[in-house]
Structure formats: structure tokens, C-alpha cells
Design goal:
This protein is mainly α and 170 residues long. It has one domain. 43% of the residues lie in helices and 2% in strands. Strands 1-2 form a two-stranded antiparallel ribbon. It starts with 14 loop residues before the first helix and ends in a 6-residue tail after the last helix. It binds iron/sulfur cluster. The site of iron/sulfur cluster has 10 residues, from loops.
Length: 170
């Protein structure tokens, strides 16, 4: 089955698709709460915003992406009238801006990007890992049961699937 990345105009708004969309909206609300919670938790830590961690091929360290986050990214791009970004020649995340130095979806960036810190980050001695794990578990629960439900996967892999319209519905 295909990941339905963008809503096709003239789609039949059947009862089940309306219900699926309503479930997405509820999950998106909770996702926003999860993002607020993790941002507050990590507020004492600094990030130089150099986008070094977004050079995914170079770092070989990728955040994971959950289905509900894919929905948020899809909606954000649709609202901005942006097409789904193509793969970058430099191996950086395809959601970087043209310069390759800034995330173009910063407000919608996934949980894995929010919780990723490199050696340049400064802050308290230890990360609040227990709370981060609890929030991550909430993301799993939110993603289960969505019409667009795909297993959490590495960001570039799942974005490539979404771009190609491949993947599984459950
Ligand atoms: S989504 Fe944004 S923050 Fe995350 S890797 Fe891509 S460009 Fe970087």
C-alpha cells in the first residue's frame, strides 16, 4: 500500500476517511503537547543551530520519525504550499533549506531532532532521559492506530518512502 503523502483534490470524503482525519487531528493535538513538553525539558541546553547534525549522510546518525510526525510534516508543507522536498545532492536532510544550513521546518521538526545534542551542546550534566523516554512512548501510542501508520524509521528512509509514495498502511 502507498503512503498517501498529499491529499488529492476531489478525493471522496467517505465516512471512514473523515473519521481517520478526525483521529489524526486528535493525535496532532497531543503531538503538539509532547513537543511543548520536550522543548521545556531541554530548554536549559544550548544548541548552536549549525545544522551539523542535519548532514545525515556525513554523521551517519539519524533521528527516527514516527507516523504522527510524518502527518505533521505533511500538513505543514501543504499549508505552506510547498512540494515535498527532493533528495539533496550533498546527503543532508531533505528538509534543510537551500543553503543547507537551516532546517526549513524548524517548528515542525521531529522529536528525534529536538532531542539530538552534539558535543557542542551545553547544559546540565545529564539529559532527562527518563522523561524523554516517557514522551517517546507517547509518540508510539499516538502513531499506532493512525490510518497512515508506518513503523518508526530513520528520518531519511521514511522521508524517501513518503516522497516515492511507498510504504504500508495498516
Ligand atoms: S528535520 Fe530539520 S532539524 Fe531534523 S534533520 Fe531535517 S533539517 Fe535537521
Amino acid at each position: 500500500m502507498k503512503i498517501r503523502w498529499q491529499s488529492a483534490p476531489g478525493d471522496d470524503e467517505s465516512r471512514s476517511s473523515r473519521q481517520a482525519r478526525a483521529a489524526e487531528r486528535r493525535a496532532l493535538k497531543e503531538l503538539a503537547a509532547v513537543y511543548r513538553a520536550v522543548d521545556a525539558l531541554l530548554a536549559p541546553f544550548t544548541c548552536d543551530r549549525s545544522a551539523a547534525c542535519c548532514q545525515l549522510q556525513r554523521t551517519r546518525r539519524e533521528p527516527f520519525l514516527f507516523s504522527i510526525e510524518l502527518v505533521r510534516l505533511r500538513d505543514g508543507l501543504e499549508r505552506a504550499g510547498r512540494p515535498f522536498p527532493a533528495e539533496r545532492a550533498d546527503g543532508g536532510c531533505r528538509l534543510l533549506d537551500k543553503s543547507g544550513m537551516r532546517c526549513s521546518v524548524y517548528g515542525d521538526r521531529p522529536f528525534g531532532c529536538r532531542t539530538f545534542f552534539c558535543e557542542k551542546g551545553r547544559g546540565p550534566r545529564s539529559m532527562p532521559n527518563l522523561e524523554i523516554n516517557r514522551l517517546s512512548a507517547r509518540l508510539t501510542r499516538l502513531s499506532d492506530g493512525l490510518a497512515l501508520s508506518v513503523s518508526p524509521r530513520q528520518l531519511s528512509e521514511l522521508l524517501a518512502e513518503a516522497a516515492n509514495g511507498e510504504g504500508e498502511h495498516r
